Predict the 3D structure of the following.
Amino acid sequence: MSGFTYFDEAEAERRARACTLSDVSLAFDDLLQENLVIIADEEISDEQLFCLAQAFDATHYTVQLPEAYQAAFAAKATELAAPRSRATWIAEWERLGFPEPPHYDPDTMEDTDFARTLEDFCGSHAKGAFGSEFGPRMISPEWHAALDPNSPEQRRAVSCVMLGAHLSGFEIGIIGNEKEPE
């Protein structure tokens, strides 16, 4: 992905230790196919969490912390990346020439209703994007699997669904990125 910083394991460890953390290890998760920075310190301050969020922002490493700290770290990392992410989404939305995305108001709309509104907005190739057993905020694995990556219309529908959801404030998830053991 463009905009991501790539560096080796020695640099990853150096960055984590620079946050005054001592129990640091690195691993590769074969199932999820991702590089991990594993922090096992028993006590981690807010300052250390913010330091980690800055150190691994826009990198190809996933920071894994004790369960008690993971949510707070995720919130800090998301907050740090939000302005850059939103600017990227807006630029891509405009580049693709989409009109103003639909408005999502969680106080007045059901998730299912907005999901259908976004599918309708994005056109016929977006139908079923949110129709899965995992709920209205999850991209349907069946819909995604049926897409033809060589179809410009279908790629455009994926862009519309993903960007439209983000720009509307409709948080979505994707089931996937797993590699089955051989």
